[in-house]
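Re-run with default settings, no changes from the original entry. Doing this only to confirm the output is reproducible before filing.
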Amino acid sequence: MPKRTQHENEILKQFGVQLRQARIQYGFTQEELAVKAGFSRSYYTEIETGKRNISLLNMTKLADCLGISLSNLLGEGS
């Protein structure tokens, strides 16, 4: 598997920041949101810290659990 570029790492980290802000804004702990989305807490933590390249379907699950649009979760609606 090829190593990620610095730019790719920054994209993943920025998504994690957006996700964390949304999670806190909507009053969820990491554990609560992970369970609601059907993820393990460790998988969720890796998403939020930018270590995991999350799929589009899993991003959609998180947005649905938060009750926001995917574009909002991606920071496009702010």
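The CA atoms of residues 19 and 73 lie 6 Å apart. Residues 6-25 form the longest helix (20 residues).
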